[in-house]
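Page 37, top half.
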Amino acid sequence: MDQQNSRYSRLLKRQKTIKQSTNNPNDNLNTTFIIETNEGDNYCKSMCDSSTQVNFECIPNNSFVFACSFEGDSVGTQITSSTGFYDNNLKFSLDKSCGPDSNTNYFCPSGLDCDKFHGFDSVKNETSLKDLTGTSFKVFDFLLSLLPETRTNVIIKKNRLLIFLMKIKLDLSFSALSVLFNVHRTTVSRTFFNILDILCFKTKNLIFWPSKHTITETLPETFKKHYPNTRCIIDCTEIKVEQPPTVEQRVYMYSHYKGCYTIKFLAAITPSGSVSFISKCYGGRSSDSFITNDSGFLKKLEPGDQILADKGFPGIKTNCENNNTILVMPPILHNGTLTEQEVLETYSIASIRIHIERFFARLKTYGILKKIPIELLPYIDNIVHICCVLTNLQPPLIKH
């Protein structure tokens, strides 16, 4: 009984303290009051503790009344304030979120006329598709058939392939593609690298070394007169790269010929104009002869094969002779002049070799090869492979 009276006395003392605090206009009310009631006594039967916390922050003086009431086992609090006591200059924070709302349809339904970009549904004709991706509908459908179905991806399969091909053709940044397709940048980058891996694996057989019989059967008329045993035309090309972060990489990738940082690879095309061999990528410092000898290209040649090349491959002549293959290069100047026969030979070789220059020109229409950023450098072999596959899927380079 004495213990209950003691608790009741403490309770009355707390109420008296609160009333004095609320009625005193000189008190600073920009504090936090914590009122604890019924600490484990008989008024709180099933609860051990009960507390009330009130924050009077930024509320002007004498603009409110705070009261506590007790009726039997019930405890209540009440605040009475005048309207409009909030400070107009008080700044409120709002919740913010990233990414599209799952309940919002950003793409209009198919067939609905509006000015928004609908992904693949916005492509109405083949000209538009070629401008965006560099492919026809037939090639697009073929590549689409190589991709597996996934139910967990937030982007449909056609739009995933469209994102990939737009990156290859237009070299749009991942951020720009994320705006067009209304997804996060990391979703776009993850989609690109995922499709890159899948297509490289599925299309690895689309660049192959044809048999000698196949080359002979498809040899264009322009080759039959002077170079009937031509197996392929070879050359190296360079692609600009952003400045590497380390000194070792800069030394390895700096090209004195281009005067900047590049990567270089060897390409071989058949006389009919299709790609038959692509080496891995090397630093721009590597010579054409070194890449040819190191890439394993010479192991594919058979005795009697003719290889057309420019003047940058004298270092492979010995290996070609050891394999009983014939390296056809333009004559080298002697004392700054060429004989009449050498001029005619140079013209004849150049008129045939021009086809590999046409291949490189077609290959570099893919914007991603204009300048490789550092973040894409680890994937450069796969990117070059895909660009060569897409070039092979275009109409023939040499018309029969």
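Page 37, bottom half:
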Amino acid sequence: MMRISVSAALAIVMAGIAATGASAQATLASVKQKGVLTCGSNRGAPGFGAPDAQGNWTGLDVDLCRAIAAAIFDDPAKVQFVPLSAQDRFTALQSGQVDVLARNSTATMSRDTQLGLEFPAINYFDGQGFMVRKSLGIASAKELNGKSVCTDQGTTTELNLADYFRANNLTYQPVSFVNATEAKKAYEAGRCDAMTTDVSGLYAARLTLSNPDDQVILPEIISKEPLGPAVRHGDNQWGDIVKFTHMAMLNAEELGVTKANVEQMKTSDNPEIKRLLGTEGKFGEAVGLTNDWAVRIIKHVGNYGEVFERNVGEGSRLKIKRGQNALWTKGGLQYGIPVR
């Protein structure tokens, strides 16, 4: 009787583990059933995520979501963008309100280990900085001693700000707001001497100010801010899809595969291109997609370089240099995991 009871108990435990594993792999099936990808987004970050007056979303993070939808549905329009604040973004992902969070969020250890999240890829390497009015005559962040600084609550930005001033034995007056939009409004109204956030966010915020040429972004970078999409912990298949969507765009840029030539490149004899475009191997099937998954991404959205340039690059309104977001072959940090 004891042996039977132990065996029965073990069977129940194993069944529970199997059920948990099965439910953890459910995101792709759910997305396919809905017929649309729900993407947690930033409503007020030009170049990264923002809708226009007609409700059309554009941005680097927006294009990542469109690329995921293209890989799954062969249609980049099958995305529902859900605007989220810094305070509610992770809760929305944890609760299943969104399938993926692509909202300039910094990957950190605590978010990975304590919030039940994973950051499968880094699609923008950033760092925190400061913006001030030129009229202040400030050329360095170390000249902000005793000044007031606008920031948004509940973010790594707020923590980094405190760390920087403490490490440099400086004092400051924090002026905190519920989100970056309110912080920017306060800065423009003159309620603080400086505004701090990720440098990419400062470039975006400066665009929307009434006198953008009157603002200067100081040279100091005070933190590491690896920004990327987040998914729920435990769904390895879904994490792989999000990760390799970004990797496909990186590898396409490195191999010279573009939105314009991707169909032509299908006939390439280059084994790396053949594997990427699905004419050799079954790499797409391994993650629950079709073998032309990368072709779908590139023909609808483009490679990483194309996405970067049109949204935030030197040909865009933000005019950001590639810098550390250049490919590894050009001195940057973006390095595509091989498809093989």
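Margin note: The longest strand covers residues 128-133.
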